[in-house]
C-alpha cells in the first residue's frame, strides 16, 4: 500500500461552487487546455476552426445544474478557480446564441452553445466524470486531451502520473498506520501532519501556518456572507435561503444547547448556500460538503472562544481523515454517493472537534469513524441536478452528526470501540461500488426522481 503524499492544500482548495468535481475540476481542465492552445505554433492556431467539449458521466447528466459549462468556459478564457471572482463567473453565459470568443494566441475562436456536448452518462472511460476537449481544423484534430474530474477538485488526465513530490517524513496509508507512527514517534497528529507537509511541499512552518490561516479566513468569510444574504438561490427550484433566518432566530433564543445547535446549522446553511450560488468556498473535502467544517470552526472560534492556533492545529490534524478516505475509497459523489462527500466532511469535522478540545488521537479517530459510519449508504440525488436539495440541509446534519460523534467518542471507553475508521472507509467504498448509478450524482434516482 503506497503512502499518502498529498498536500493539505490540495485537499483544502479555494474555488467557486457549487461542486468541486463539476466546477473546480472542469475549470482546471479548461484552463489547462487554454494553456495548451496558446502554446500551439501560430500556423496551427490560424488553421483552427472550432473547439468541441464532450462531457461524460454525471457531468453530462447534472453538469448544467452544477454550472459545469460555465466553469469550463471560465477556464478556457484563462481563469483559474482560486482567483476567479464570482462576478466573472456570473458574467459568463454558456447559452449565449452569439457564442463566446476564446483567446487563441493573437486570434479569437468562437465557441457556440452547441460546441458543449452533453454526452453519455455511461461510458468506458476510467473515471465517471470525464471531459474530452478537441480543437479542430475542419475535420482534422489539431489538439486533444482527455481529463478526469475525480472529486474534491482533483484533476487527472490520460497518461497522468502522480506528481513527484517530497517523501513524507512519517509515511502512512491508513488510520492504523497513522496511529502506529504517532505512538512510535510520540507525536501529536498535527505535528506529524506538519512534518509531512514540510517534507512533501518544501514549505516552511510559517508558510504552512499562513496558508492554513487563509483557509480558515475564507471559510469564515463564506459563513459571514451567507448569514446576511437573503432571497432565492439560482435555478428553477425557487429555494429560499434559510441561513440568515436561522441565524437571527438563534440570536433571539435564550442560551441553551438548542441555541448552539441552531447557530451550528445556520453556519452550515450559510456556506452551503454560498456554494449553491457559485460563490467562493473551500473544498472540505468537496464543494458539496463545504459547509460542515466551517460551521464547526465558526462555533469553536466565536462561541467556544478557542484560539485560532488551537483550531488551526485541529484542522491540520483532521485533514489526515480526508486523506485516508480519498486514498482508500473516494470523496466523489459520482463515485461513491454522498457518503463520500458529507460523510467524509462530517468524519473530518468530528476529529477536528475532538482535537480542538484536547482529546488524544485514538478518541479523534473513533469520533471520525462514528460520524462516517452513520453516513454509510447515503446517496447523491440532487433535485434537478442543483446542489440545493438535499445537499444544503445535509451540510447542517453533517455538522450536527460530527458534534454528536465527538461526544459519543469522548464519553465512551476507547477500548469498547469495535469498528475502526479503516473498516468504515472500506465499507464506504464497497457500498459505493454496489450503489446503482442512479444514486451517484446523476439526478436520476432518490429525491431527484420523486421531486
Automatic annotation (TrEMBL):
Residues 185-448 form the Serine dehydratase-like alpha subunit domain. Residues 7-158 form the Serine dehydratase beta chain domain. Its cofactor is [4Fe-4S] cluster. It is an enzyme of class 4 (lyase). It comes from the Bacteria. It catalyses: L-serine = pyruvate + NH4(+). This is L-serine dehydratase.
Amino acid at each position: 500500500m503506497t503512502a499518502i503524499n498529498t498536500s493539505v492544500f490540495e485537499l483544502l482548495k479555494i474555488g467557486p461552487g457549487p461542486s468541486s468535481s463539476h466546477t473546480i475540476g472542469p475549470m482546471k481542465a479548461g484552463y489547462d487546455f487554454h494553456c495548451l492552445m496558446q502554446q500551439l505554433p501560430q500556423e496551427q492556431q490560424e488553421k483552427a476552426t472550432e473547439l468541441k467539449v464532450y462531457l461524460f458521466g454525471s457531468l453530462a447528466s447534472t453538469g448544467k445544474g452544477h454550472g459545469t459549462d460555465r466553469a469550463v468556459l471560465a477556464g478556457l478564457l484563462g481563469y483559474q478557480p482560486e482567483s476567479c471572482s464570482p462576478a466573472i463567473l456570473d458574467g459568463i453565459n454558456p447559452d449565449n446564441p452569439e457564442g463566446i470568443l476564446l483567446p487563441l494566441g493573437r486570434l479569437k475562436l468562437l465557441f457556440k452553445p452547441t460546441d458543449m456536448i452533453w454526452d453519455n452518462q455511461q461510458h468506458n472511460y476510467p473515471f465517471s466524470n470525464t471531459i474530452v476537449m478537441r480543437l479542430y481544423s475542419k475535420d482534422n484534430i489539431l489538439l486533444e486531451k482527455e481529463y478526469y474530474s475525480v472529486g474534491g477538485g482533483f484533476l487527472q488526465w490520460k497518461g497522468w502520473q502522480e506528481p513527484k513530490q517530497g517523501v513524507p517524513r512519517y509515511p502512512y496509508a491508513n488510520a492504523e498506520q497513522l496511529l502506529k507512527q504517532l505512538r512510535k514517534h510520540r507525536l501529536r497528529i498535527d505535528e506529524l501532519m506538519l512534518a509531512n507537509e514540510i517534507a512533501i511541499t518544501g514549505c516552511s512552518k510559517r508558510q504552512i501556518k499562513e496558508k492554513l490561516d487563509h483557509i480558515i479566513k475564507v471559510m469564515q468569510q463564506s459563513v459571514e456572507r451567507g448569514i446576511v444574504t437573503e432571497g432565492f438561490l439560482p435555478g428553477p427550484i425557487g429555494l429560499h435561503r434559510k441561513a440568515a433566518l436561522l441565524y437571527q432566530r438563534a440570536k433571539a433564543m435564550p442560551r441553551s444547547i438548542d441555541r448552539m445547535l441552531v447557530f451550528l446549522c445556520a453556519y452550515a446553511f450559510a456556506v452551503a448556500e454560498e456554494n449553491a450560488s457559485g460563490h467562493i468556498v473551500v473544498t472540505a473535502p468537496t464543494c458539496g460538503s463545504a459547509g460542515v467544517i466551517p460551521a464547526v470552526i465558526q462555533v469553536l472560534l466565536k462561541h467556544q472562544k478557542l484560539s485560532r492556533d488551537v483550531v488551526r492545529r485541529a484542522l491540520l490534524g483532521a485533514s489526515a481523515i480526508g486523506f485516508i478516505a480519498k486514498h482508500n475509497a473516494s470523496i466523489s459523489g459520482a463515485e461513491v454517493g454522498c457518503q463520500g462527500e458529507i460523510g467524509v466532511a462530517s468524519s473530518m469535522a468530528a476529529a477536528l472537534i475532538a482535537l480542538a478540545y484536547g482529546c488524544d488521537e485514538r478518541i479523534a479517530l473513533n469520533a471520525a469513524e462514528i460520524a462516517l459510519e452513520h453516513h454509510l449508504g447515503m446517496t447523491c440525488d440532487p433535485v434537478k441536478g442543483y446542489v440545493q436539495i438535499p445537499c444544503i440541509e445535509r451540510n447542517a446534519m453533517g455538522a450536527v452528526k460530527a458534534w454528536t460523534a465527538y461526544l459519543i467518542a469522548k464519553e465512551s471507553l476507547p477500548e469498547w470501540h469495535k469498528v475502526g475508521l479503516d473498516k468504515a472507509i472500506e465499507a464506504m467504498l464497497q457500498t459505493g461500488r454496489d450503489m446503482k448509478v442512479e444514486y451517484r450524482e446523476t439526478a436520476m434516482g432518490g429525491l431527484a426522481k420523486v421531486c
